[in-house]
Specification:
The chain is mainly β. 7% of the residues lie in helices and 39% in strands. The protein has helices at residues 39-42, 63-66, and strands at 4-5, 9-11, 18-25, 28-33, 53-54, 75-80, 85-87, 93-98, 103-109.
């Protein structure tokens, strides 16, 4: 069972600096998509305040039926364990799921 799920895919569009995540405790599953994927492929929200947010929950079993272009977006998956670090490239779409009780530290440089 998941402990925490952010049910959307987000791209930190305004962030052009460096971002790294260090896993301190527990495990998190990350999914990352290249920012070159179009808003149509990523099913971006129509809300003007959420133009960096996709309405897709990538864990849905009926994903291909509900969002037929989304599976075409190649995903990079990784599981962070204690002591692991992940560099998140600028503007990459990402979805994070805590697989266990966990704690992470985000480091930002501009």
């Amino acid at each position: 069972a998941s402990f925490l799920v952010i049910p959307v895919v987000v791209a930190d569009g305004g962030m052009n600096g460096l971002w790294a995540v260090v896993q301190v405790q527990g495990h998190k599953v990350w999914r990352l998509w290249d920012p070159s994927h179009s808003p149509t492929t990523m099913h971006v929200s129509t809300d003007p305040l959420q133009r960096n947010t996709s309405v897709v929950d990538p864990r849905l079993p009926d994903l291909p039926r509900r969002y037929p272009t989304f599976p075409a977006a190649e995903v990079v998956r990784c599981r962070l364990r204690p002591g692991d670090a992940l560099y998140v490239p600028p503007k990459w779409w990402h979805h994070v799921e805590a697989a266990t009780m966990s704690m992470s530290v985000s480091l930002w440089w501009t």
